[in-house]
Amino acid sequence: MSAPQGPGPAPQYPTPGAPAAPPKKTRKWPWIVGAIAAVLVIAGAAGGGDKDATTPAPAAPTVASGEPGPAAAAPEASETPDAGIGSPVRDGKFEFTVTNVETGLSSLGDNPYLEKQAQGQFVVVTMTVLNTSGEPKGVSPGDQKLFDTQGREFSADTSAGLNLDTDVAFWDEINPGNAVTLKVVYDMPADAVPASMELHDSMFSGGVDVALQ
After folding, report:
1. Degrees to nearest 5, angle at CA 152 with 94 and 77
2. What one-character DSSP code corresponds to residue 96?
């Protein structure tokens, strides 16, 4: 037989008149944190609908009065600006210098067999032509164009040009470094006023403009 067990601990009873233990406080911070998290979730869901909204472009900066604005791009300079009488210009391998313009001629030539009568008036343009290349090159009065103040184009009258004292009456070659005097004749209406010329190294070149006024 097992030994008889002793009596257990005596039950504890509150002492009469002693204050009762205060009840445990309920922790409220988990509820506060949860409420804040819920608010953030709701706010995020509400803001998600604006993702597709167009973002306005930033306004262009304004320049206050009196302050310099951005510098405008400078226009490109022309490779060969228009020149006038006495100014040398180049097209291809030739350098042209118009020296004189004579208008109002009714006829040209002293030889009765070569004399030419103008339909309107003869205009004679005198120029020097310098060959700047390293080889002989041909020049022709027929490649040079004349324009009047109305924008009309006139071609050279080479048959009338045979009556002129010129180094090149029809077509000729100029040796490298040499210059010749070229007189070109145009038959224009009596009231036409020469305005400009388009001078050419050859009939296929781009040409260069010279003002006659």
Report:
1. 50
2. E
Q: Distance between CA atoms of 5 and 157, rounded to whole angstroms?
A: 154
The residue that leads in pLDDT, 150 or 77, is: 150
> What dihedral do alpha carbons 135, 89, 80, 131 form, nearest 10°?
0
Q: Record the pTM.
A: 0.62
- Taking alpha carbons only, the member of 105, 121, 103, 102 closest to residue 189 is 121
Tens of pLDDT, residue by residue over 137-160, are 999 999 999 999 999 999 999 999
Dump the DSSP string for 15-70.
Answer: PTTPPPPPPPPPP-HHHHHHHHHHHHHHHHHHHGGGTTSPPPPPPPPP--TTS--P
Coil, helix or strand at residue 131: strand
| DSSP H/E element including 119 | strand 116-131
Tokens of 190: 């009596």
- Please measure the distance between the N-terminal and C-terminal CA atoms of the chain and give it in whole angstroms: 150
The backbone torsions φ and ψ at residue 60, rounded to the nearest 5 degrees and listed phi first, read -65, 140
Phi, psi torsion values for 196, nearest 5 degrees: -160, 165
Number of Cβ within 10 Å of residue 82's Cβ equals 12
Residue 138 structure tokens: 């041909």
